[in-house]
Amino acid sequence: MPATPAIATERAAPRMIPLCEPHLGGREWEYVKDCLDSGWVSSVGAYVTRFEQEVAAWIGVRAAVATVNGTAALHVALRAAGVERDDEVLVSTLTFIAPANAIRYAGAWPVFIDAEPHFWQMDVQKAADFLARDCRWTRGALINRHTGRRVRALLPVHILGHPVDMHPMLQIAARYELPVIEDATESLGAEYRGRRVGHLGHAACLSFNGNKLITTGGGGMVLTDDDAWATRVKYWTTQAKDDGVEYEHREVGYNYRLTNLQAAMGVAQFERLPAHVDAKRRIAKAYTSALASLPGIEPMQEAPWARSVFWMYTVLVHPRAFGMSSRTLLQALARAGVQTRPLWQPLHRSAAHAGAYAVDCGTAERLHRQALSLPCSVGLTDEDLAAVVARIGAAHRGDDNRRRGLFRAHAAATQSCR
Ligand SMILES: *Cc1c(COP(=O)(O)O)cnc(C)c1O
Fold it and tell me: Is this prediction's pTM over 0.85?
């Protein structure tokens, strides 16, 4: 018996294409089973050490300390850098909120720096201008004239898989004697002038959250060449235990450890990192060429000095040329079964961080209005990618509006017949 038209439409409704799913294509089962079989499931175990050592060796950094998540990694890295109560830390305004929250956990305040318009990363020139014009030296401390607070560190965030321009960043760090902590949570595997991110500043933080390049379910890591920093980070992440027999503590620490179970998954995922990076780069290339013919869609760029891992493939939607705003496109794609997402509210606009100082952040605001991230899971198929592109094209041509127009006309006609 033929299906009724209503059911047929429902059946034809497209499957949702998610924004970014984990890809578990390696030896995860084997290593996790090994933990279960051996009983080593908790916060110490061979996989934790192995995970730390393998990541450190690959990045080329001396020490790595695994943590419960990337936010915790940032918190203890900031403390290792000497950030204290009422200090200030320069951080990108256009980023996921975690680094700004971590600054506040350390008792300090963010100073929000705008994004540059080309690669959307922290605008290093604006950071330099802030330090030159808005700060003064007082008794050996660099003071923000507007707040009276001491500027203590730089926290560039390599967003969306692409590195910040680190050479000028390190120059200002040297000039003002400020440690640099890289937030590399979105950019594991990316390169800056042939060097891997995670080894460009004084410390770096990684995340293994479910949507990152590799995942442990949840997890993070602090990387550093400084053995003293690594020792302190390890100390704080393990409840600042001074005596492992008598359980004596001089300081208030944290329980920020990664479990062996999670690390087992991490080791398996890390074996697949190059494959994940290849997939992300292939997806980015395919989108960029397929979207080139659509007016008003501006794909994310890769700097000549960078190798991006295109963690989250993102485009700018120019409303006049494309025919609708990024948010209208988001809704049209959602109706067509394609999950997309804008970039984060710039943090200088966030009520959570009211009271923090910010430089002029006009570029981040424009990027926030225009940006849309497209489905880019490591496992995204060619068919799904083609479907996303086709649905963006349909939105541009107004197929969707026409359909809704027809639907409205039909609904009106049905109503008038009642
Ligand atoms: C994911 C992320 C983090 C850390 O996140 P966790 O979920 O705590 O691991 C930190 N900074 C940025 C920019 C991120 O995207």
Answer: yes
